[in-house]
Amino acid sequence: MGEKFLVTINEKEVEASPDQTILEVARENGIYIPTLCYYRGTTNVGACRVCVVEVENARSLVASCAMPVSPGMVIKTDTDRVKEARKLVVELLWASGDHNCLTCEKNGNCELQDLIYLMEIEEPRFKIESPGYEKERTNSMIERDLNKCILCGRCVRACNEIQVNEVLDFSMRGSRTRVGPAFDTDYIDSECFFCGECVDACPVGAITFKQARFAGRPWELEKVRTTCTYCGVGCQLDLNVHDGKIVKVTGNREYGQPNFGSLCVKGRFGMDFVDSPERLKTPLIRKDGELKEASWEEAHAFITDKLTAIKEEYGPDSIAGFSSARCTNEENYLFQKFMRAVVGTNNVDHCARL
Ligand code: FES
To answer: In a 3-state reduction of DSSP, which class is residue 242?
Structure first.
């Protein structure tokens, strides 16, 4: 991080460091610059050009997300030239895809839609020509509609640089350029792990959660922050809830550690157990060969009687306890304490150790 220096943005002097881009310095100082392909924590590729700004003595407009600041730089983010260039980019993106918000799952949560509205574009100056790709609906978790893809590459970088799964990349050339797994296969036939990182990264409706389709509009969903129950890592996630039902699970990069918004396939898609009719809601005790529902008091009394009888007859080391990575650290601590202090044995283990 070298020594700080001054740059001028919109006629105001601000501090910057040599490892920062123009975009980062602007955002740090509350100056809005629109972005589409920029995805924090991944390589700045400067692909969409929606973040262009004017830099004094530069030959052309520069992509602020990819341009490092230098001492004395003079930057303008809101001139007519800048605004026209950004608007042209957004119009071209609109015209090159099937951005039909009426049926799009991302309506209300789409970064392209937001920019069109912000720039007050009634309709693009160019003829809308959708590429005519077939929608990919061959798996039960992720739906892809490449007609809505703006080729920002956020999904590619999320897959390769954040999850390091290296499944997605660009293929073909020119107007037929598209994103997908090798050999243009569907996700289900590729090496995809279904972590869903690409869905969270997609700024438009090209990659969406299939189970969330028609299950609630973005503004109807209540986001409930919670800790994933699948393992001991403690990943933070948002349950998107509509009418008391979990519609989808999204990562939140603002929560930071331990997962910085990333999730695995279980945490992302394995939430249907919450409403499963097969879910155990009460303890079960086997009576006459059949499991019967019981109260917690009955279950505790049953366990106490059985453990006491076994301990008296065969000694404490005849009992072993096996805990779970799905319990919290505190629960696992209490469990080993119970085995050692109450039962009197060190026979205690944990599934994560196997
Ligand atoms: Fe900078 Fe796309 S956000 S070029």
So the answer is: strand
Q: Give 165-199 pLDDT, tens digit per residue.
A: 999 999 999 989 999 999 999 999 999 999 999 99
CATH number at residue 40: 3.10.20.740
- Is any ligand 1 atom within 6 A of the Cβ of residue 194? no
* CA of 256 relative to ligand 1 center, distance in Å: 24
Which of 25, 37, 53 for mutating ligand 1's site (highest number of atoms within 8 Å of CB)? 37
Number of domains in the chain: 3
* pLDDT tens-digit map of 4-37: 999 999 999 999 999 999 999 999 999 999 999 9
CA dist 347 and 354 (Å) reads 15
- Does residue 40 fall inside a structural domain? yes
Judged by average pLDDT, the poorest of 137-141, 256-260, 323-327 is 323-327
Instruction: Judge contact between 253 and 261, C-beta under 8 A.
Output: yes
- Residues 205 and 292 placed together within one structural domain of the fold: no
Amino acid at 137: R
Q: Which of 248, 275, 302 delimits the end of a domain? A: 275
Closest C-alpha among 144, 207, 131 to residue 176:
131
- Identify which of 22, 32, 38 to mutate to test ligand 1's pocket (most ligand atoms within 8 A of the CB): 38
Q: For 197-210, write each residue's pLDDT tens digit.
A: 999 999 999 999 99
Q: What's the pLDDT at 229?
A: 86
Pocket test for ligand 1, best of 27, 33, 39, 51 (most atoms within 8 A of CB): 51
Cα of 265 vs centre of ligand 1, distance in Å, is: 29
Clarify whether residues 192 and 264 are in a common domain. Answer: yes
**Domain assignment of residue 294, given as a range:** 284-353
Tell me the H-state helices in the chain.
22-28, 80-95, 111-118, 154-157, 197-201, 265-269, 296-314, 329-337
